[in-house]
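C-alpha coordinates please, single chain.
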Amino acid sequence: MGPTSSGKTTIGQAYTQHLQHLALPSIHFDGDEFRSILGSSLGITPEDRFKNVSLCVHMANKCLDAGSNVVVSALTAHDTARQFVAENAKNLIVIYLDCPLEVRMERDSRGLYRKVETGEIKADTVIGMGAPYIAPDNPHIVLNSSELAVEESVAAIHEWVLQN
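Here you go.
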Protein backbone atom coordinates (compact mmCIF):
# COMPACT_ATOMS: atom_id res chain seq x y z
CA MET A 1 0.00 0.00 0.00
CA GLY A 2 1.04 3.54 -0.60
CA PRO A 3 0.08 6.67 -2.49
CA THR A 4 0.50 7.19 -6.24
CA SER A 5 4.14 6.79 -7.40
CA SER A 6 5.42 5.56 -4.02
CA GLY A 7 7.02 2.51 -5.65
CA LYS A 8 4.37 -0.17 -5.15
CA THR A 9 4.65 -1.68 -8.62
CA THR A 10 8.45 -1.46 -8.83
CA ILE A 11 9.00 -3.10 -5.45
CA GLY A 12 6.18 -5.61 -5.98
CA GLN A 13 7.64 -6.74 -9.31
CA ALA A 14 11.15 -6.91 -7.85
CA TYR A 15 9.99 -9.04 -4.90
CA THR A 16 8.10 -11.35 -7.23
CA GLN A 17 11.24 -11.78 -9.34
CA HIS A 18 13.22 -12.47 -6.16
CA LEU A 19 10.81 -15.27 -5.24
CA GLN A 20 10.98 -16.68 -8.75
CA HIS A 21 14.80 -16.71 -8.60
CA LEU A 22 14.41 -18.84 -5.47
CA ALA A 23 12.34 -21.27 -7.60
CA LEU A 24 9.14 -20.33 -5.75
CA PRO A 25 6.06 -20.10 -7.96
CA SER A 26 5.05 -16.44 -7.78
CA ILE A 27 2.84 -13.94 -9.53
CA HIS A 28 2.46 -10.17 -9.27
CA PHE A 29 -0.84 -8.34 -9.70
CA ASP A 30 -1.00 -4.60 -10.07
CA GLY A 31 -4.14 -2.56 -9.50
CA ASP A 32 -3.38 -0.47 -12.59
CA GLU A 33 -3.24 -3.63 -14.73
CA PHE A 34 -6.77 -4.56 -13.69
CA ARG A 35 -7.89 -1.01 -14.44
CA SER A 36 -6.35 -1.14 -17.94
CA ILE A 37 -7.87 -4.56 -18.66
CA LEU A 38 -11.34 -3.36 -17.71
CA GLY A 39 -10.93 -0.12 -19.64
CA SER A 40 -13.47 2.63 -19.27
CA SER A 41 -15.84 0.41 -17.29
CA LEU A 42 -13.69 1.03 -14.20
CA GLY A 43 -13.32 4.66 -13.22
CA ILE A 44 -11.74 6.37 -10.24
CA THR A 45 -14.74 6.78 -7.96
CA PRO A 46 -14.45 5.20 -4.49
CA GLU A 47 -16.86 2.50 -5.68
CA ASP A 48 -14.76 1.74 -8.76
CA ARG A 49 -11.58 1.72 -6.68
CA PHE A 50 -13.24 -0.76 -4.30
CA LYS A 51 -14.26 -2.97 -7.23
CA ASN A 52 -10.67 -2.94 -8.47
CA VAL A 53 -9.35 -3.97 -5.04
CA SER A 54 -11.95 -6.72 -4.72
CA LEU A 55 -10.92 -8.10 -8.13
CA CYS A 56 -7.27 -8.10 -7.01
CA VAL A 57 -8.19 -10.00 -3.83
CA HIS A 58 -10.27 -12.53 -5.75
CA MET A 59 -7.51 -13.25 -8.27
CA ALA A 60 -4.84 -13.34 -5.55
CA ASN A 61 -6.81 -15.91 -3.57
CA LYS A 62 -7.35 -18.07 -6.67
CA CYS A 63 -3.62 -18.06 -7.44
CA LEU A 64 -2.72 -18.73 -3.81
CA ASP A 65 -5.10 -21.70 -3.78
CA ALA A 66 -3.33 -22.98 -6.90
CA GLY A 67 0.01 -22.93 -5.08
CA SER A 68 1.53 -19.59 -6.07
CA ASN A 69 2.97 -16.89 -3.90
CA VAL A 70 1.08 -13.73 -4.73
CA VAL A 71 2.23 -10.12 -4.55
CA VAL A 72 -0.37 -7.40 -5.10
CA SER A 73 0.46 -3.73 -5.65
CA ALA A 74 -2.56 -1.53 -5.06
CA LEU A 75 -3.39 1.86 -3.54
CA THR A 76 -6.10 0.60 -1.19
CA ALA A 77 -6.67 4.11 0.08
CA HIS A 78 -10.16 3.81 1.57
CA ASP A 79 -11.15 2.16 4.85
CA THR A 80 -13.85 0.00 3.22
CA ALA A 81 -11.32 -1.44 0.77
CA ARG A 82 -8.76 -2.01 3.52
CA GLN A 83 -11.32 -3.76 5.67
CA PHE A 84 -12.38 -5.93 2.72
CA VAL A 85 -8.74 -6.87 2.06
CA ALA A 86 -8.11 -7.66 5.73
CA GLU A 87 -11.20 -9.87 5.93
CA ASN A 88 -10.87 -11.62 2.56
CA ALA A 89 -7.24 -11.81 1.40
CA LYS A 90 -5.59 -15.07 2.41
CA ASN A 91 -2.09 -15.02 3.96
CA LEU A 92 -2.11 -11.22 3.97
CA ILE A 93 1.02 -9.22 4.70
CA VAL A 94 0.39 -5.47 4.59
CA ILE A 95 3.37 -3.42 3.43
CA TYR A 96 3.14 0.35 3.53
CA LEU A 97 5.46 2.43 1.34
CA ASP A 98 6.13 5.78 2.94
CA CYS A 99 7.31 8.33 0.41
CA PRO A 100 7.13 12.15 0.47
CA LEU A 101 5.03 14.00 -2.10
CA GLU A 102 8.07 15.74 -3.60
CA VAL A 103 9.69 12.40 -4.44
CA ARG A 104 6.44 10.96 -5.81
CA MET A 105 6.01 14.03 -8.03
CA GLU A 106 9.56 13.62 -9.30
CA ARG A 107 8.97 9.93 -10.12
CA ASP A 108 5.49 10.47 -11.62
CA SER A 109 5.60 7.14 -13.47
CA ARG A 110 2.15 7.60 -15.02
CA GLY A 111 2.32 11.36 -15.52
CA LEU A 112 -0.58 12.02 -13.14
CA TYR A 113 1.11 14.76 -11.12
CA ARG A 114 2.12 16.49 -14.36
CA LYS A 115 -1.50 16.30 -15.57
CA VAL A 116 -2.65 17.99 -12.35
CA GLU A 117 -0.10 20.76 -12.83
CA THR A 118 -1.24 21.36 -16.41
CA GLY A 119 -4.93 21.21 -15.48
CA GLU A 120 -5.70 18.07 -17.50
CA ILE A 121 -7.05 16.34 -14.40
CA LYS A 122 -8.17 17.54 -10.99
CA ALA A 123 -5.85 17.17 -8.01
CA ASP A 124 -8.51 15.30 -6.02
CA THR A 125 -8.29 12.38 -8.48
CA VAL A 126 -4.66 11.70 -7.51
CA ILE A 127 -4.50 9.76 -4.25
CA GLY A 128 -1.81 11.30 -2.08
CA MET A 129 -1.98 14.73 -3.71
CA GLY A 130 -5.40 16.39 -3.71
CA ALA A 131 -7.11 13.32 -2.29
CA PRO A 132 -5.53 12.39 1.03
CA TYR A 133 -3.78 9.08 1.52
CA ILE A 134 -3.90 8.02 5.14
CA ALA A 135 -1.30 5.45 6.11
CA PRO A 136 -2.78 2.10 7.09
CA ASP A 137 -3.12 1.20 10.76
CA ASN A 138 -0.59 -1.38 11.90
CA PRO A 139 0.98 -2.55 8.63
CA HIS A 140 3.27 -5.55 9.01
CA ILE A 141 6.11 -3.73 7.25
CA VAL A 142 6.80 -0.02 6.68
CA LEU A 143 9.41 0.92 4.08
CA ASN A 144 10.58 4.42 3.25
CA SER A 145 10.79 4.00 -0.51
CA SER A 146 12.48 7.38 -0.95
CA GLU A 147 15.44 6.28 1.16
CA LEU A 148 15.75 2.56 0.41
CA ALA A 149 16.91 1.18 -2.92
CA VAL A 150 14.57 -1.35 -4.50
CA GLU A 151 16.99 -4.17 -3.61
CA GLU A 152 17.05 -3.03 0.02
CA SER A 153 13.26 -3.00 0.13
CA VAL A 154 13.13 -6.51 -1.34
CA ALA A 155 15.67 -7.72 1.24
CA ALA A 156 13.69 -6.14 4.09
CA ILE A 157 10.47 -7.79 2.93
CA HIS A 158 12.12 -11.18 2.52
CA GLU A 159 13.79 -10.95 5.93
CA TRP A 160 10.44 -10.15 7.56
CA VAL A 161 8.76 -13.09 5.79
CA LEU A 162 11.50 -15.48 6.90
CA GLN A 163 11.23 -14.32 10.51
CA ASN A 164 7.45 -14.47 10.64
